[in-house]
Design brief:
The protein has helices spanning 2-27, 29-40, 47-53, 77-82, 97-110, 126-129, 186-201, 210-221, 242-260, 320-337, 342-346, 362-375, 389-392, 397-413, 425-428, 491-510, 617-622; strands at 62-65, 71-73, 165-166, 176-178, 226-227, 232-233, 431-435, 441-445, 457-459, 527-532, 545-555, 560-566, 587-593, 607-615, 630-638, 645-646, 649-654. It is of the alpha+beta class. The strands form six sheets. Strands 10-15-12-13 form a four-stranded antiparallel sheet. Strands 11, 14, 16 and 17 form a four-stranded antiparallel sheet that branches. The protein has a three-stranded mixed sheet with strand order 3-8-7, covered by helices on one side. The structure holds CU-O-CU linkage (C2O).
């Protein structure tokens, strides 16, 4: 036994080196731009950003950038191959966690990863193989995680289990209906309270216990693990993993609560923030004596404050009615006009070996991200609990928030057109690990999560008031001219307006340059640029026109939001168009980053790099710009102006 073990170890060292040689050339272009971010934009880096950069001091230190220019942990076999001198890596590693990790990886390499034709799968870069993302080995956990800004560090490593079984779809569960949290009967509230009370009372070591459940979110969102054997952060946000991972997370959380109160009919409620009946914090979470209460919420946003789905991290001065109207337009954008293809809704593909955070879908950016930050307490170091991923799962409202996201997935599929589940086998076969209601570790497949009725639940049918809430177009919104038949503009008047508008666009665009002509990609204030269209498509065609903001880079642990507008002409030269909201026809979409810890890059900076894609066919049509050769974009950063954002390039693609 010992002979074969040492043989496989020495073989695997050679394999690791080959793997590195192959994969480093594939990923070289990306780290290069990371480097330019950290060097050329030094002057723009705020003290907060520097602080963020030095966070996670307690985590295993990462090595310097090697010849492949990709930072890898100093203790990994890959880095041993990188540093030609070899060096004494043991000094750099957490003595317990990482030495164990190394052994484990070597064993995996030598034994179980002999795949097709007897070749170890690591001989080829995983990304080139295009395989589904596999869950991390729970033994290989980075701890502790330092949330920064003075918040105590957390250990969100999940309990390790030696047996993993494949999840089987439930056969004995009754069909359950998740209800709107604003409309649940008092008998339900009593059950829900009792279930949470029991959840909090479970022994701390029980994987189902309240804190352990919160840790599940922290563990898979804050770089506690890497994608098996790759030294790449394991991340379930900002990609196509977002919807299905959270669906499974809720499923097991719900089953655990149901089991604790011995009631298989129990479901989580959903926070229907997009509706005329659910736009405040649900009152069931407000009672400080209830087990559903959480003190770490924004005191300004207690009921009856109206939720601001387009939250700019500062209080809006709009009336409640205006906020609700704006919320509806935003929902229309995210659910109807801007997510006509699966990738626009679900987010970008993410396969084994890919860099994390390739890009979020419409809903994940907002309202998902904005409601997180709106709910958390800005007086806490990192807007805990809901405002940052490591602590979000501590607030029972998290699950109601995500239940609504999960419901919107169902609603979106019912809206027709190309709105269907993804069919890529690397999506369907991606797997996750969860502890089930019996505290057993199970492996689940995304493909088993697409039909909620197979998981024995559905949603209360509620009206989706935003379905037709398109913003009013510029050529018909002036009530002074609405004297034509049926209250619309008179055709002659509409023609005049249209021409005036075209003339305005022409003048506005004449003063603009393309994005690539800018000196740097940094966006620290409002920016305008011209975008040339390679060809014209119509919104009702099969093709959707997509505006891509390529290589958006932000510090992963900062709350970030910026808005993108199309042909937003500033009429009166007072340069106040950054006061514009999401309820104008020019609004195209927003990028949102909910703070989370990422794996440190190079000198310890944790940078999130994503593509931000916006479906704009319908916006162009609403603006009467679908036949133009080009259009203007305005990028408006929200929140703190000192937070750096950088964008590589802006281009158009079709899907
Ligand atoms: Cu995993 Cu709302 O976040």
């Amino acid at each position: 036994l010992s002979l074969s073990l040492s043989l496989s170890l020495s073989v695997s060292m050679g394999i690791a080196a080959q793997h590195l040689a192959l994969s480093s050339s594939l990923i070289r272009d990306n780290p290069a731009s990371f480097l330019s971010y950290s060097t050329s934009s030094q002057a723009l880096i705020s003290p907060a950003f520097r602080r963020a950069a030095s966070k996670r001091a307690g985590a295993p230190r990462l090595g310097t950038l090697g010849p492949g220019r990709w930072p890898v942990p100093a203790s990994s076999p890959i880095s041993a191959a990188l540093h030609e001198s070899g060096g004494d890596n043991s000094n750099n590693a957490d003595p317990v966690e990482l030495n164990g990790a190394l052994d484990r990886r070597q064993l995996l390499l030598g034994s179980s990863s002999l795949g097709i034709a007897g070749l170890p799968s690591l001989l080829l870069p995983q990304s080139a193989l295009g395989s589904p993302v596999q869950p991390p080995d729970l033994k290989l956990c980075t701890t502790p995680i330092d949330p920064g800004n003075g918040a105590p560090s957390v250990n969100c490593c999940l309990p390790v289990s030696t047996t993993i079984t494949d999840f089987k779809l439930p056969t004995n569960l009754p069909m359950r209906t998740r209800l709107s949290a604003h409309q649940v009967p008092s008998s339900y509230i009593a059950k829900y309270n009792q279930a949470y009370k029991l959840l909090r009372e479970l022994p701390a070591s029980d994987p189902r216990q309240y804190s352990q459940q919160a840790n599940v979110h922290c563990a898979f969102c804050d770089a506690a693990y890497d994608v098996n054997g790759t030294q790449i952060e394991y991340q379930v946000h900002n990609s196509w993993l977002f919807f299905p991972w959270h669906r499974w997370y809720l499923y097991f959380h719900e089953r655990i609560l149901a089991t604790l109160i011995k009631d298989d009919t129990f479901t989580l409620p959903f926070w229907n923030w997009d509706s005329a009946t659910g736009y405040t914090l649900p009152p069931i979470y407000n009672d400080s004596k209830s087990s559903l209460y959480n003190a770490n919420r924004n005191p300004l946003h207690r009921t009856p404050a109206v939720v601001d789905l387009n939250y700019n991290f500062t209080e809006s001065n709009s009336s409640a009615a205006a906020l609700l109207a704006a919320n509806n337009t935003l929902m229309y954008r995210q659910m109807v006009s801007n997510s006509k293809t699966p990738s626009l809704f679900f987010g970008q593909s993410y396969r084994q070996g890919d860099e994390p955070n390739p890009g979020a879908g419409t809903i994940e950016n907002l309202p998902h991200g904005t409601v997180h930050v709106w709910t958390g307490n800005p007086a806490n170091p990192n807007d805990e609990d809901m405002g940052t991923f490591y602590s979000a799962g501590r607030d029972p409202i998290f699950h109601a928030h995500h239940s609504n996201i999960d419901r919107l997935w169902e609603v979106w599929k019912s809206l027709g057109g190309r709105r269907q589940d993804l069919t890529d086998s690397d999506y369907l076969n991606a797997t996750f690990l969860f502890y089930d209601e019996n505290a057993k570790l199970v492996r689940v497949r995304i493909g088993d999560a697409l039909d909620t009725t197979k998981l024995a639940y559905k949603y209360q049918d509620v009206p989706n008031g935003w379905l037709n809430a398109a913003p009013r177009s510029r050529t018909s919104s002036d009530t002074a001219v609405n004297f034509g038949p049926g209250g619309g503009p008179h055709p002659a008047m509409a023609g005049r307006l249209r021409e005036k508008l075209k003339e305005k666009y022409r003048k506005f665009k004449a003063g603009l340059k393309e994005f690539k002509e800018r000196a740097s990609g940094n966006i620290d204030k409002k920016e305008r640029a011209l975008v040339k269209r390679p060809r014209k498509v119509r919104a009702d065609d099969f093709d959707e026109e997509i505006l891509v903001l390529e290589g958006v880079r932000v510090a992963s642990d900062e709350k970030i939001k910026f808005d993108v507008y199309i042909n937003l002409v500033d009429d009166d030269d007072d340069d106040d168009d950054d006061k514009v909201g999401c309820d104008v026809p020019e609004y195209a979409g927003s990028f949102v980053n909910v703070p989370h810890m990422g794996m440190k890059m190079g000198e310890g900076r944790s940078v999130r790099k994503s593509n931000f894609r916006i479906g704009i066919g319908e916006v162009l049509k609403e603006l009467d710009a679908e036949d133009d050769d080009d259009f203007a974009i305005t990028i408006v950063p929200r929140g703190k102006p000192s937070v750096p954002i950088s964008i590589d390039n802006v281009r158009i693609e079709y899907e």
